[in-house]
C-alpha cells in the first residue's frame, strides 16, 4: 500500500485530478485525498465537503396517488465516520432550525450506517416525523424502521411509507409493516394502494406478497383496469401484457384509462398496438383524445414527440387541452398540474413546448407554471415570448365553481414570476429581472409563506420551505426589492388604494419564515432592515437554538415574557415537536416551573385532550421523561379522551405511540391506586 501511495506522489496534478474525477466525490473527500501529502496538497481545496443527499428520484402517476415530495435519501457511499465525527456532538446542531435538523435525521435514517442514525437521534432535538420512516423504508433499512417506529415514537403516514417500501422492492419491510398491523385503519384500502404501486414500479415480489398474504378475505382488490393502468404508466410493458391476458378490460371508460396510461409510460410502438385494439372506442370522444394527447406530451419516455405526432396524424386535427369543467378519466385538477410539473423536470422540456407550439397547440398555463416551478431556465425564457396563455384548467374550474369567468387570459411573465417565487427558483427570477419583468414578487412570496397546509401535514411530515431561496434572493442578494416595491406602490395608486394597504407586512413575513424554518441571517435582516417584529413563539416552534439566543438578546427577558408566558412558549415548542427549543427554554428558566404541579398537570391535559388529535403523544412522553408529574384523575381522564379521539376519528396511531400510551395508562393507574 505504501508503494502505491509513493507512486501516486509521482503523478502530476492533472493526472491526480483525473483519478479523483473518476471516483465518487465522497470517496475522494474521505480517503483518496489523504493518500499522501502530494495528493492532499493537490485536492484539498477541491474536495472540502461531502454530498450527503442524493438527487431526488421523481415520478408521477394518476392512479398511484397520495404521495407527495420525493423522500430525502442519503448519498452512497455515505461518509459515516466523518458524519459521526462532526454531527455526533451537540454544537453543530445549534445553528440548524427544526426543519433542517429533521432532514439530517432522514438522511441518517437512509444512510445504511447505524452509528450515523445513533448520532442524529441523540442530537437532532425534534420529534421523529413520518418522513424519516419513509427514508428508511425506501432503502430497505428494516432495523432503522423498527427503531424509528417502535422505539423512537415516529409518526405514521400510511401511503408514503408503504409506497417507499413497495416501490423499491423491499418485501421484508412490507411484511414487517403488515405483521405489526400498520395499515392505516383499513387493510383493504391500503392493499389496493400498494398493489397498484407495485404494478407501477414493476415490483413483482412485493406484488405477489400483497396479493397472496395480505388481507385475505378483506377484499381490497383493485379493478383490472386500475392494475393495467398503473403498469402502463410505469412503463412495465411485460407486466401490462400479463395483466391484460389474465383479466380483460372492457368498456370505453376503462379502455381509455389504460390507453392513456400507455400513452404516458410506454414506447410509441406499444401505444400503437393497444390503440389498434381500443382506439375506435377509447378515443371516440374529444375529452378522451385530450387525455391521450396530454399523457403523450408529458410522457417521461424519450419518444414523447413520436407519440404526439402519431396521435395527431391519426386524428387529423388537434383536440386541444382540457376545457373548463370537464376532466379526463383519472385526471383531476391536481394530477393535471402534476403531469406538466413532472415533465418540466425533464432536460428536454423546452423542446417539448416548442414541438407542441409547432403543431399548432396553444401552451397551457400549467405548462408555463411548470417551467418556472422546476427551475427550467431555457423553457422559462422561451415562455416569456408567448402570447396570452390558454387559461389554467385549475383556475378556470375554481372560477366556474364560484359562478365567475376569467376576465382575460394570463400573461406569461405574470405566471412565471408567481410560480418561480412560490417554488424558490432563483435562476428563473434572475432571468425575469434581466428581461425587465416588473412584478410584485413580495406579495407573492407573502402569499406563498401563508399558504395553509393540512393540519396533520404539519405534525406528521416536515414539509420543505420551498420559497425560502426566493425570499432570501429578493431581500439580501440583489433581487430587486426596491423596483418591486415601487411597482407595487404604482399599481396600488393606479387602483386607488392607500399606500398602507399595498405595503408589505414584514412582521408577518418574519413570523411565517420563523415558523417554517429560516436561517438566522434572513431573520436578522428582516428585523434590522425592515423593522419586522420578532415573534418569539413562532421562533420556538420552528427555530434553532442560535436563533433563540439572538432573539432573547434583542428582546431581553422582559420583552419575551411580554409576548407570551413561559407555559405558552413551552407548549408551542412541544406542539411543534421542537425538543431542542423546549430544552433551551428549560435551561433559561423560560419554561414551566418544575415545582408547579398545577402548571404541569394543566399542560399535560391540554396536550392530551384539547388538540382534537392524538398526534401529541410524543410530546406527552417527552414531558414525562423530564418532569416528575403527580398524576391526578384529570390527567387520567385526559388520556382517555386522547384515546377516544384516536378511535372516533379513525386516526392511524403509530406503533410506538400505542406503546407509550399503554405505559402512560399503567403509570396513572399505579399512581392513583397508591393515593
Name the descriptors.
single chain; 675 residues; mainly alpha; Serine Threonine Protein Phosphatase 5, Tetratricopeptide repeat; 41 helices; globular; phospholipase activity
Write the layout of secondary structure elements.
Blueprint: H1 2-8, H2 13-22, H3 25-30, H4 37-43, H5 80-87, H6 98-109, H7 114-123, H8 130-138, H9 142-151, H10 158-167, H11 171-179, H12 187-201, H13 204-213, H14 224-233, H15 237-246, H16 252-265, H17 268-282, H18 286-297, H19 304-315, H20 333-344, H21 349-358, H22 365-373, H23 377-383, H24 393-401, H25 412-423, H26 426-434, H27 441-449, H28 455-460, H29 468-476, H30 481-494, H31 499-502, H32 506-516, H33 520-530, H34 536-542, H35 545-563, H36 566-576, H37 579-587, H38 597-609, H39 617-626, H40 633-649, H41 655-673
Helix pairs in contact: 5-7, 6-7, 6-8, 8-9, 8-10, 9-41, 10-12, 12-13, 12-14, 14-15, 14-16, 16-17, 16-18, 18-19, 20-22, 21-23, 22-25, 25-26, 25-27, 32-33, 32-34, 34-35, 34-36, 36-37, 38-40, 40-41
GO molecular function, one term: phospholipase activity
Amino acid at each position: 500500500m505504501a508503494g502505491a501511495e509513493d507512486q501516486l506522489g509521482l503523478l502530476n496534478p492533472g493526472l491526480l485530478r483525473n483519478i479523483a474525477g473518476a471516483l465518487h466525490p465522497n470517496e475522494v473527500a474521505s480517503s483518496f485525498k489523504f493518500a499522501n501529502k502530494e495528493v492532499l496538497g493537490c485536492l484539498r481545496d477541491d474536495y472540502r465537503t461531502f454530498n450527503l443527499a442524493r438527487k431526488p428520484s421523481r415520478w408521477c402517476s394518476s392512479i398511484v396517488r397520495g404521495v407527495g415530495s420525493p423522500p430525502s435519501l442519503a448519498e452512497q457511499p455515505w461518509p459515516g465516520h466523518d458524519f459521526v465525527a462532526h454531527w455526533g456532538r451537540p454544537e453543530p446542531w445549534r445553528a440548524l432550525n427544526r426543519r433542517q435538523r429533521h432532514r439530517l435525521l432522514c438522511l441518517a435514517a437512509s444512510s445504511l450506517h447505524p452509528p450515523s442514525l445513533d448520532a442524529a437521534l441523540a442530537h437532532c432535538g425534534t420529534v421523529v416525523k413520518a418522513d424519516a420512516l419513509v427514508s428508511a423504508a425506501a432503502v430497505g433499512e428494516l432495523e432503522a424502521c423498527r427503531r424509528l417506529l417502535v422505539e423512537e415514537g415516529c409518526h405514521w403516514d400510511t401511503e408514503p411509507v408503504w409506497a417507499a417500501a413497495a416501490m423499491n422492492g423491499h418485501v421484508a419491510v412490507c411484511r414487517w409493516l403488515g405483521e405489526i398491523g400498520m395499515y392505516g385503519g383499513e387493510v383493504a384500502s391500503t392493499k389496493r394502494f400498494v398493489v397498484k404501486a407495485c404494478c407501477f414500479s414493476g415490483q413483482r415480489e412485493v406484488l405477489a406478497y400483497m396479493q397472496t398474504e395480505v388481507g385475505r378475505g378483506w377484499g381490497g382488490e383493485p379493478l383490472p383496469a386500475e392494475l393495467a393502468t398503473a403498469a402502463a404508466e410505469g412503463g412495465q410493458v411485460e407486466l401490462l401484457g400479463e395483466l391484460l391476458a389474465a383479466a380483460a378490460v372492457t368498456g370505453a371508460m376503462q379502455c381509455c384509462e389504460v390507453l392513456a396510461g400507455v400513452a404516458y409510460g410506454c414506447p410509441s410502438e406499444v401505444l400503437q398496438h393497444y390503440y389498434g385494439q381500443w382506439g375506435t372506442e377509447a378515443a371516440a370522444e374529444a375529452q378522451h383524445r385530450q387525455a391521450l394527447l396530454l399523457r403523450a406530451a408529458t410522457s417521461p419516455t424519450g419518444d414523447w414527440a413520436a407519440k404526439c405526432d402519431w396521435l395527431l396524424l391519426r386524428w387529423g386535427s388537434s383536440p386541444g387541452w382540457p376545457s373548463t369543467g370537464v376532466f379526463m378519466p383519472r385526471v383531476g385538477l391536481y394530477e393535471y398540474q402534476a403531469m406538466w410539473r413532472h415533465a418540466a423536470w425533464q432536460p428536454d422540456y423546452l423542446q417539448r413546448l416548442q414541438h407542441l407550439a409547432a403543431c399548432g397547440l396553444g401552451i397551457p398555463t400549467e405548462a408555463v407554471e411548470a417551467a418556472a416551478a422546476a427551475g427550467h431556465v431555457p423553457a422559462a425564457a422561451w415562455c416569456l415570448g408567448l402570447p396570452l396563455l390558454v387559461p389554467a384548467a385549475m383556475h378556470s374550474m375554481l372560477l366556474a365553481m364560484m359562478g365567475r369567468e376569467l376576465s382575460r387570459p394570463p400573461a406569461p411573465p405574470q405566471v412565471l414570476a408567481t410560480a418561480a417565487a412560490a417554488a424558490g427558483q432563483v435562476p428563473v427570477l434572475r432571468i425575469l429581472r434581466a428581461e425587465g419583468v416588473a412584478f410584485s414578487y413580495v406579495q407573492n412570496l407573502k402569499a406563498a409563506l401563508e399558504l395553509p397546509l393540512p393540519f396533520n401535514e404539519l405534525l406528521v411530515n416536515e414539509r420543505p420551505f420551498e420559497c425560502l431561496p426566493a425570499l432570501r434572493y429578493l431581500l439580501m442578494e440583489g433581487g430587486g426589492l426596491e423596483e418591486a416595491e415601487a411597482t407595487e406602490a404604482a399599481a396600488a395608486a393606479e387602483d386607488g388604494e392607500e399606500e398602507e394597504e399595498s405595503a408589505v407586512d414584514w412582521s408577518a413575513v418574519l413570523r411565517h419564515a420563523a415558523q417554517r424554518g429560516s436561517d438566522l441571517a434572513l431573520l436578522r435582516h428582516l428585523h434590522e432592515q425592515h423593522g419586522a417584529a420578532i415573534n418569539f413563539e413562532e421562533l420556538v416552534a420552528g427555530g434553532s437554538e442560535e436563533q433563540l439566543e439572538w432573539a432573547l438578546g434583542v428582546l431581553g427577558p422582559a420583552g419575551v415574557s411580554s409576548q407570551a408566558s413561559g407555559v405558552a412558549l413551552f407548549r408551542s415548542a412541544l406542539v411543534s415537536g421542537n425538543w431542542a427549543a423546549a430544552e433551551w427554554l428549560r435551561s433559561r428558566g423560560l419554561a414551566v416551573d418544575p415545582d408547579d404541579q398545577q402548571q404541569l398537570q394543566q399542560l399535560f391535559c391540554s396536550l392530551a385532550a384539547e388538540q382534537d388529535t392524538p398526534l401529541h403523544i410524543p410530546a406527552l412522553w417527552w414531558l414525562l421523561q423530564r418532569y416528575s408529574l403527580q398524576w391526578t384523575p384529570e390527567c387520567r381522564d385526559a388520556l382517555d379522551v386522547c384515546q377516544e379521539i384516536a378511535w372516533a376519528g379513525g386516526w392511524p396511531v403509530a406503533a410506538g405511540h400505542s406503546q407509550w400510551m399503554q405505559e402512560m395508562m399503567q403509570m396513572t393507574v399505579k399512581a392513583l391506586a397508591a393515593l
